[in-house]
Structures are given as structure tokens and as C-alpha cells.
Design a protein that fits this description.
The complex is a heterodimer. Chain A is 31% helix and 19% strand. Chain A has 12 helices and 13 strands. The chains are: A alpha/beta, B alpha/beta. The interface between A and B is large, with 38 and 38 residues.
């Protein structure tokens, strides 16, 4: 723990968003994670993105499971609703929260242990159902909270801090998403907010489930030479597939000179995500091509980053399930609970 | 993929003491470079004697300055840029002085064996006294010539006792005189040639700027009720003047005018007006002195230019003024009307100037503007080798703290002069940087930001204040006020020191900084860098720190020093200790020169 709480003093010229809030207003409690943890940087990127989008903190529901990642929801948006669920069980709780009030901006924070080991089943089905939420996977390749055992995202041949080599194949959340029908898949790096912040903003504007897999180095257990999730390895092997600019819906969008390989995707709320493909011809809307490209890159040992795949067409879970448009909390009791007679009529059907 | 942020900007050179010195705004602004944050911490720890001695090392008169300093440190204080008001540095200095106890055993020791060099000091004001303070511990003999029968110069004659009690003044002066100054009272120097003939190894001129400016307007010579401000104040100090008329006009609005108007109130004046030619933003008086005068009921009248003293039947009845209207920037004015203000006395406080009737013009001393001796700004020497100037006599009226710094520089020069060393060979400035880390998240200084507002000085009640001339108005800080005010100090001397090769660019420091000081970005020229930082770096007076290229990406770490609150969280959240909090200590040349510096135990 730091010696002091982050002082309340702010920069006298700190910028305000359209709600008159500064970035400091989107912060949370002091982090108790290790100094230099990638998760803290992701938290800071989230603070930045939420502030820029001027989302009212009380309209945010933030949820997490267990692990170092599970703690991070406490560190941003102190005015938001929060739920710290059981290990790997964040997706069903998030589904419930969203079902009760679809106006909430739902943010789930998970880790590679929480998502790819114990919670893998829930994640797969969350992808199929396309629940509208931002799902951040803080990916460091180890179980940090239990002192650095390999997680399910550790690469074959990478080593633990003690020197042991991993021999089990990794689960790639992006490839998993492509096969399970996910509609927004991005990968980024905690050490690169220039890329991460626009991706998070695009994800928050997405119509369905947006999975953002963020390489988030564990400084304590997985930032050494044999690691493939270290700051240095990621910087040396990162290949940016797309450069992403998020354009909010408010200003008139004037596309001037389309750059070579540029593409636009209009989000459901009218915002625009502009891509510049770094390898010419990369098409983030072509599921088969993206799958193939990802597998080739994996074989080359590259860490692909950017908004890898997006499809704004499929309906989200609310549309599929035809759930209540109105938040349950604002529906009068008589309408919300039809009564015993109506229930037995439904039961007898 | 490595994104190369090749920088053509040279990394900041923090090995030069100037860089970190500038970060300590108060110390940088202080002419004598007093180590303010360190003495404030000592006060916080209740180590008043240590705080006093640390002050004395650079400014020689902590108790006097704790009441009267012009405080160039306070407008410079970083706290002003953070929450709008500076730390009450001057008031805290007085706390250290008031509570110091007996420090006589810690004063510089005077060798019994002298070095055989004799120095003459002209005047017994702050500049001469500080020269004696610096040279006596080195074995010099100092002879001091004073035209009055008491020492102190303008500190005694021009600063009223209700701001600076005589005991406070005497105590600090006596320490220096007690080191063995051969002081000759009632001995004005009437000829520099004669003095030079007495075989001194060096002569220091610290005779001040003793001539108050006059105002030659119609009627000036027709009455004896028009007084020159500094002469009038000195007559009060020596009890030659004990009363004044009920209605008094003060002409001029500098600090002398403030002392004149407040003294008038204590000598029987009831309707006191300070007449200013220009609007308030252009006043020369310090804001706090204006506040204190207005609190006592002095009326400050702006935009009035005097034209005539009105004397009827040999009696001063008032003054005529032109009421002015100024353009923006107060450069040009036009006259609106002529107005009359009745009064019994007029006090002129429109400035003062040097006067050297006792320096023979054929001595060959080079004279410059206004026929004043040319003084070297570094060595304080005139064109006559061995004749040095300091204080107001060097370049006209400044203040006590400047006089002290001039004296330090002159003492260094005199020492060089007497040892046959070139005057340009000044002792160097040194710095020490010491890590303040005590544990994983523990520092040897109080690193939390305290949001307390600046503590207000309590004054003696107005009804009691005017009963006697010498009732000190400011009561000093209470223990509670002191305890709060010391924590407002941001410890700017505890520097954020960065070691680029250790950085892994995890962004932890950037994310934790409460005031968005830090940025990792591609290198570039300063003007360009200032536009792309975490928060706008709009204050060009404040330095940007730019690191060497970072190992992983070649980008640079940039810190805008402007509003850093020195909380140390960047260093606490740094996993590789690339950031550290290190206390910066400047070794002053004067300390280096003197054999036994009055250090902190």
C-alpha cells in the first residue's frame, strides 16, 4: 500500500468533460496491487475513456471475479455500482444486472485465470449471447495472486520466474471469440494507452459484447527474460494490425482524404470507428480472414494488437431475448409482479 | 514492435545544481538563497534553534527578517500556483526566531589569533553588519564607522517599532558586535581619501541610500509642516518627534509611505490619507503592508497627482491635486479636475537616493548614471581596488535581504582581495542529493498534501494598538497555526530524481500523479513538447525535465515541474526505483568560505 492516499489536489488547469467532471472524478480507491502492475495502467486507461465519453458514473455497473483483476473494479469510477462475484462467475452476474437495467453501461473486468480457466464456460456463452457490455481481460499469463503459476494463456516454452518451462498449449481469447461468435474482439497492451484508450471507447460504443484482451505484465511474477507477457517482450513482438480512431457521434463526421487501407465502421449509437490497417488489406470485418491471419501470426510469435474483429450487425442479447426496454426498477410493482393468479395461469400452460 | 522516438533534445542536465535549485522556488527567489523547506521541516519537528541557525547561515538576521523581510520567496512559492496562496514563509521564520532559546554557544567562533588584515565598514546597517559577520570568524579585524549613536542603520531608523521591536533588533546586532567589531559611533566618514590613508586592507561602503526625495512644488518652502518620510521616521525612532497634526497627507505609496501613515496614527493623527498617482496594481508597497495600513483606517486615494502646497498666512492648510484618468496599462493619463485636500502635515515618501558627498571626485572612482559609483554586480567592487559597496549604497534602495546577499558577495571578494586571489575566483556552489527512502512506502519527510488554507496572522486589537508607539502589531503564529502552516509547505527540495536506464515504461508514475506532471512521449524541442503533455505546461518560467532515451522504446520521460506537490507517489509506485525522492541541499559559497559554518546539528 502506498504511504498516502492520492492527494485530492488537482492540476489547476485540469480539463473537464461535457459533464464538468475531471479525470479525477472517475478514479476510485487507491490500488493495492504491486507497483508497476499492468492492471493499474488499464484502470487509468478506463478512467480516461469513461471521462472522455462523459458517461455518468452512477450509470455504470462494474463487475469482476476473483484474482488480481478482481480487485481492480474498486480502483475506478467510485460513483458507480459494483459487484465482486465468485471466481469466473462475473458473466452471469453481469447478464443479470444488464437484464434488470439495459441502460447501464456494464463493465466486466476479468483476468486470464478468471476467464480462461475456471470461467471459460461462462465466457464462451457470453460470446454466443452477445450481451452488450465491455469485457476487459487483463492478461498476464500467470496466477499472480497465488504467486506466479502458469495460467491458461501462458505460451508454450515461456518460463516461470523460477525457471520452469510451460508445456501446455495456451487458450487465445481472440481465436476463442472468433469461433464462438463474438462481435467485437480487440487486443492491446497496458503500456500503450495511445492505442488502448480509443479501443476502450470503441468497445463501450459497441452494440454487443466487446472483448478487449489486454496484455498486462505482472511485474512481480512475469516480467523476466523467459516471459512472453513482459513489458519488453510485448514491445519487441507487438504488431499493430489496425490503428483505431474513435469518433463520437456528436460532431459532424467529415471524411476527407481516405488513407490507403482505411475503413469505417459505424457503431449503433452513431459513433464511428476509423481503422487504418497496418498490413495493407487487413479487413477487420472478415471473420474467416481474421482467423487465418491470427493463426499465422501466432505461429510467427507475433503479438497482434488493435481492433482485430468487429461486426455491428448481429443483435445483442436484449434484442434476441426481447427483454424489457424499461429498467425493472422503474416498472410499477403491479406490472412487474403479475400476481399469483397470472402465475398459475402461466404455470398451467 | 519497437517504435523509435529518437530525440534531438538533449536530456536535462541535473548534475548542474542550478536545475534542482530552480525547483525550490522560494530558495531560488531569495537573494541569499535561504534553505526554506528545510527550516520549515525543522520547525515542524520543534527544532527551533536548528531552524534559526540554518536561517542565520544565509540571511544573518532571522528574527529581524521574520518581521520585516520583503519576502521575494512568497510570490515565488509553488503553493501559490497550486491553491492560490503561498506558504507564510516569513511568519514561520519569526516562529523559529521567537522560540529559538539560547543559541549563543552555536554562533561562529572568533579566532584569538588574527590574520593581520583590517577592514573598514562605513555605516552600521545590515550590509556592514553582515560583512563583519562573515569576516570576523576568519580572523579579520573590522572597524565600523557609524554617524549615529546606535547601530542598525535603516532597520532602526526607518522601520517603526510597532513592526520591529528594539529588543529584537538589538539582540541580533549585538551578536555580531560581540564578535569583536570595533564600532565607532557618532563618527561620520567625511572623506574617503582620508579613510584610504589609514592603511585599511579593504573598505566596505554600506552607508545606505540616506537621502529622501523632495518634491519641489509651489509652497514647498513656505511652511515647516512638510516632512521627508525617512528623516521623519528616524526622528520618531530617536524620539525627536512625538506628535503630528490630525489631518495628514502622505505622498507616495511605497513601503515607507505605509510606515509613515501608520506612525502618524500613533502620534495623534486621525485622518490619514495616502495619495497615489497611479491605480492600485501599480503600487510599490507590498500587498500585506497595504492591508495592514487599511486595517488601521488609513485611506488610500488613487489617481491624484500633487500640484501645489497651499499655505495661508504661513500655515499649511492643504494640498492641491490633479485627479487623473489613466489608460489601460497606466502609461498615459489625462487630467479630470483639480481638487483640494485639507491637511495639517504632509509627509513625502516618494523614494530615496544615494548620496556620497564624502567621496572625493578626484579619487578616480568611476561614476555611472546619476553620478553614482560603478559597482561590479558579481564582486561588489568599485573601480578602486579594495573599495567595495553593498546594500542600498550599491544600486539604490532595495531591502534588507538584498543587503545581506551583497554583503556575502563583498565578503568573498574582500577575502580574495586580501589573500591575493583574483576576485573572479568565486567559491563554487555545491549540491548534495540524499535519498529520502526509509522503507518500501516510507519517506523521511511528511509527503502528504495538506489542504489547509494559509493561516492568518493575529493582530493586537485596534483599540490597544495606538496606545503606545512601540506595541508590536503582529502577535506571531500560535502553536496550532504553526502546526498547520508548516504542513502547507510542499517540500520542493525533496526532488523527483529519475534514472532513465531503469525505466520499463509501465506508466505507473504517470497514472498515480495527482497533478498530471508526467508524460512519456517521443522527444522533441521544448516548445513542441509543452503542447503534448498530460496536462498543459503553460508556465514557461517553470522547467521541463526531459530524460535520456528510455531503454525499451527510445521515448523520453518528461516532467513539468510547475505544480508538482512532491508527494513521492511516482517513486512509491515505481517498480524499478527509476524514480527516487532525494533531498537537495545547496552548499552556499559563503558557507564554504567561512571556516566554521553554523551548521545544523
Amino acid at each position: 500500500m502506498p504511504s498516502i492516499v492520492k492527494p485530492s489536489v488537482t492540476h489547476p488547469a485540469a480539463a473537464q468533460n461535457s459533464r464538468g467532471l475531471t479525470q479525477r472524478d472517475y478514479e476510485g480507491a487507491m490500488s493495492t496491487l504491486c507497483a508497476g502492475c499492468g492492471h493499474d495502467s488499464i484502470t487509468a486507461a478506463l478512467v480516461h475513456a469513461l471521462w472522455e465519453l462523459a458517461i455518468p458514473p452512477h450509470m455504470i455497473a462494474k463487475l469482476s471475479g476473483i484474482g488480481c483483476s478482481g480487485k481492480t473494479t474498486a480502483y475506478f469510477a467510485r460513483g458507480a455500482h459494483g459487484f465482486n462475484s465468485a471466481h469466473g462467475r462475473m458473466p452471469p452476474i453481469a447478464t443479470g444486472a444488464s437484464a434488470a437495467n439495459r441502460d447501464l453501461t456494464v463493465i466486466g473486468i476479468s483476468g486470464d485465470g478468471d476467464s480462461l480457466s475456471i470461467g471459460l464456460g461462462h465466457l464462451g456463452h457470453l460470446m454466443r449471447r452477445n450481451l452488450r457490455m465491455l469485457y476487459v481481460l487483463e492478461n498476464n499469463g500467470v496466477y499472480g495472486l497465488t504467486k506466479g503459476q502458469f495460467s491458461a494463456s501462458a505460451d508454450v516454452g515461456s518460463t516461470a520466474k523460477g525457471g520452469a518451462s510451460n508445456r501446455l498449449a495456451p487458450i487465445d481469447a481472440m481465436l476463442l471469440g472468433l469461433s464462438a461468435g463474438a462481435t467485437f474482439l480487440a487486443r492491446s497492451f497496458s503500456g500503450d494507452k495511445e492505442q488502448l484508450v480509443p479501443i476502450l471507447k470503441s468497445a463501450l460504443a459497441h452494440r454487443g459484447l466487446a472483448v478487449v484482451d489486454v496484455i498486462s505484465p505482472c511485474v512481480t511474477f512475469n516480467d523476466h527474460e523467459g516471459s512472453t507477457k513482459s513489458y519488453l517482450f510485448t514491445r519487441q513482438h507487438e504488431v499493430r494490425v489496425t490503428e483505431t480512431d474513435f469518433v463520437p457521434p456528436e460532431p459532424a463526421i467529415e471524411a476527407t482524404i481516405p488513407e490507403n487501407g482505411a475503413a469505417w465502421v459505424v457503431m449503433h449509437d452513431g459513433a464511428t470507428v476509423r481503422f487504418r490497417s497496418v498490413p495493407a488489406g487487413y479487413d477487420p470485418t472478415d471473420r474467416a480472414a481474421v482467423t487465418a491471419y491470427l493463426q499465422e501470426a501466432l505461429a510467427r510469435g507475433e503479438v497482434l494488437t488493435g481492433l482485430l474483429y468487429v461486426d455491428e450487425a448481429p443483435p445483442d442479447l436484449h434484442e434476441t431475448a426481447n427483454s424489457s426496454r424499461e429498467p425493472l426498477v422503474s416498472i410499477p410493482y403491479e406490472r412487474l409482479c403479475p400476481g399469483a393468479a397470472e402465475l398459475s395461469r402461466v404455470g398451467a400452460r | 514492435m519497437r517504435r523509435d522516438g529518437a530525440s534531438n533534445l538533449k536530456p536535462t542536465d541535473t548534475a548542474d545544481p542550478t536545475y534542482f535549485h530552480r525547483v525550490v522556488d522560494c530558495q531560488w527567489a531569495c537573494p541569499a538563497h535561504t534553505n526554506v523547506p528545510e527550516y520549515i521541516r525543522l520547525i515542524a519537528q520543534g527544532r527551533y534553534a536548528d531552524a534559526y541557525m540554518l536561517n542565520r547561515e544565509s540571511n544573518v538576521f532571522p528574527a529581524i527578517l521574520g518581521r520585516t523581510c520583503d519576502r521575494p520567496c512568497e510570490p515565488a512559492c509553488r503553493r501559490t500556483r497550486v491553491d492560490g496562496t503561498p506558504v507564510a514563509i516569513c511568519r514561520l521564520k519569526r516562529v523559529a526566531a521567537d522560540l529559538r532559546g539560547d543559541v549563543s554557544a552555536r554562533m561562529p567562533r572568533i579566532p584569538s589569533a588574527k590574520n593581520g588584515k583590517r577592514i573598514a565598514c562605513i555605516g552600521a546597517g545590515p550590509a556592514s553588519l553582515a560583512v563583519a559577520n562573515d569576516l570576523l570568524p576568519l580572523g579579520y579585524e573590522v572597524v565600523m564607522y557609524e554617524q549615529l549613536d546606535k547601530p542598525g542603520g535603516l532597520m532602526r531608523t526607518n522601520i517603526p517599532a510597532f513592526r520591529l521591536p528594539a529588543e529584537v533588533l538589538d539582540e541580533e546586532i549585538d551578536v555580531i558586535l560581540g564578535m569583536g567589531v570595533d564600532i565607532r559611533y557618532n563618527t561620520p566618514v567625511t572623506s574617503l581619501r582620508a579613510l584610504m590613508g589609514e592603511g585599511y586592507d579593504a573598505i566596505f561602503v554600506g552607508s545606505g541610500a540616506p537621502r529622501g526625495k523632495d518634491l519641489e512644488l509651489p509652497g514647498r518652502r513656505d511652511t515647516d509642516r512638510i516632512h521627508i518620510g525617512i528623516d521623519w521616521l528616524s526622528s520618531i525612532a530617536f524620539e525627536h518627534v512625538e506628535s503630528i497634526g490630525e489631518h495628514v497627507l502622505i505622498i507616495g505609496v511605497g513601503n515607507t509611505a505605509m510606515d509613515c501613515c501608520r506612525s502618524s496614527l500613533r502620534l495623534g493623527g486621525t485622518d490619514i490619507k495616502v495619495m497615489a498617482r497611479r491605480p492600485r496594481p501599480y503600487f510599490k508597497a507590498s500587498p500585506w503592508e497595504l492591508d495592514d495600513a487599511e486595517e488601521e483606517g488609513v485611506h488610500i486615494v488613487v489617481n491624484h497627482s500633487p500640484t501645489r502646497f497651499v499655505v495661508e498666512d504661513g500655515r499649511l492648510t492643504g494640498m492641491e491635486f490633479e485627479r487623473l484618468e489613466w489608460d489601460e496599462g497606466a502609461r498615459h493619463s489625462k487630467v479630470l479636475e483639480t481638487v483640494f485636500f485639507p491637511c495639517d502635515d504632509v509627509i513625502l515618501a516618494i523614494g530615496q537616493e544615494n548620496a556620497f558627498p564624502w567621496i572625493e571626485r578626484d579619487l578616480g572612482m568611476e561614476a555611472g548614471e546619476w553620478d553614482m559609483p560603478v559597482v561590479d554586480p558579481v564582486t561588489m567592487q568599485s573601480s578602486l581596488p579594495g573599495v567595495f559597496f553593498g546594500g542600498d549604497s550599491a544600486w539604490g534602495p532595495k531591502n534588507i535581504i538584498w543587503a545581506v546577499e551583497h554583503a556575502h558577495q563583498a565578503a568573498i571578494s574582500i577575502n580574495n582581495h586580501c589573500s591575493g586571489m583574483p576576485l573572479t575566483e568565486r567559491p563554487p556552489q555545491h549540491m548534495n542529493l540524499v535519498s529520502q527512502k526509509m522503507g518500501l512506502t516510507e519517506w523521511s519527510y511528511h509527503n502528504d498534501y495538506n489542504p489547509s488554507p494559509r493561516q492568518q496572522m493575529t493582530h493586537v486589537e485596534l483599540t490597544r494598538r495606538f496606545q503606545k508607539l512601540n506595541i508590536e502589531v503582529e502577535l506571531g503564529f500560535s502553536a496550532e497555526q504553526t502546526a498547520r502552516e508548516v504542513q502547507r509547505c510542499l517540500n520542493c527540495d525533496v526532488q523527483t530524481v529519475f534514472n532513465a536506464p531503469l525505466c520499463i515504461e509501465c506508466d505507473a508514475c504517470i497514472d498515480i500523479c495527482p497533478v498530471q506532471c508526467l508524460t512519456i512521449t517521443t522527444g522533441g524541442e521544448e516548445d513542441d513538447l509543452r503542447t503534448r503533455l498530460s496536462a498543459p505546461a503553460a508556465n514557461p518560467e517553470q522547467a521541463l525535465f526531459v530524460s535520456a532515451a528510455l531503454p525499451q522504446t527510445g521515448r523520453v520521460m518528461v516532467k513539468d515541474e510547475d505544480v508538482c506537490v512532491h508527494c513521492g507517489l511516482c517513486a512509491e509506485r515505481c517498480p524499478t526505483a527509476a524514480w527516487d525522492m532525494q533531498k537537495f541541499e545547496l552548499t552556499l559559497p559563503i558557507t564554504l568560505m567561512t571556516a566554521e559554518p553554523a551548521g545544523v546539528a
